[in-house]
Amino acid sequence: MELSYLMLTGSLSGLISILAHSIVWSGVELARGATKQAAGLAAVAVSEALLHMMCGIGLGLFFWLSWGLAALVAVPWWVRGLSFAALCWFVLTVPMLLELAFAQRLSPRSAALTASRWATTCIIAGLACAWSWERAL
Question: Please, which residues have CB within 8 angstroms of residue 73's CB and are 6 or more apart in sequence?
Fold first, then answer.
């Protein structure tokens, strides 16, 4: 599998995930009749979209370095992708959220929003990389 192809897949997955998460979260806030301040939490800055895109590139690289989680044998591609996503989310996001919660006293709502954004990025990138890996072999 080409490294550049997985990195491109990861970068596009990062962009798609943050934009899709923003649309879904905005719809949820609109349905709840949220205030402007709560609706502002759903807004995504360009820098955040770029950060998720770069994270997707890194997830594609990690997937390539792990040989597509070659230790998981006789499982469908989506199980491999979800396993990779869960591992990445746990290793990357949980320490960051704990640090932010203790250092900056994040509200539970902000912590949940951040955790779900990173979970979305990890899941979409993991599934896209696993699917690409499966189709290339």
Answer: none
